[in-house]
Amino acid sequence: PWILPWLEDAIARKDGVFRFSVKFPTSENVETHKKMKKFCEKHVNIAKEQYTKKYFKQYGDNSKKQWQMINNLINLLGRKIYRNEQLRVKSADGKLLSNNIDVAERFNDYFSSIAANLKTKANSGKATFDPGGHITLL
């Protein structure tokens, strides 16, 4: 819904210029295609941004519509294929876990022990902050 008719025509012309530049690869034809491609990419991005801003302004009080747009923007619908796949995680002893309950317990063990592990590491040595996002023990 965000693409405008004149932009569709410009993209079709760009595709025609591309085919022509492949058939007759002179520097002028290749340069013309590059300019058309840059023009189309710029205006496609502008059109998408304008559509998105207008959509969020129109549905500013409707969180369901906003989340539909957010999911559309990050393409969660295209990832549904992966939701049906079996999740596999390695256990602490290196075994591969594929049972949903075992995987959930592994995640629970990992995330519930983070604070205790940090406390143990902090007590065992002097901890320093690394701006790269890591805790370094000295």
SSE order and pairing:
Layout lengths: L4 H19 L3 H32 L4 H11 L6 H4 L5 E2 L5 E2 L2 H13 L1 H11 L2 E4 L3 E4 L1
Helix pairs in contact: 1-2
Your description of this structure?
This protein is mainly alpha-helical. The chain has 6 helices and 4 strands. Strands 1-2 form a two-stranded antiparallel ribbon. Strands 3-4 form a two-stranded antiparallel ribbon. A hairpin with a 5-residue loop joins strand 1 and strand 2 (96-97). Helix 1 runs antiparallel to helix 2. The longest helix has 32 residues, at 27-58. The chain is elongated. The model has no long low-confidence stretch (mean pLDDT 80).
Radius of gyration: 26 Å
Global morphology: elongated
Low-confidence stretches: none
Percent of residues in β-strands: 5-15%
Mean of residue pLDDT values: 80
Look at the helices and sheets and give the structural class: mainly alpha
The H/E string reads: HHHHEEHHEE
Number of strands: 4
How much helical structure, as a percent, in the residues?
A: 55-70%
Strand order of the largest sheet: 1-2
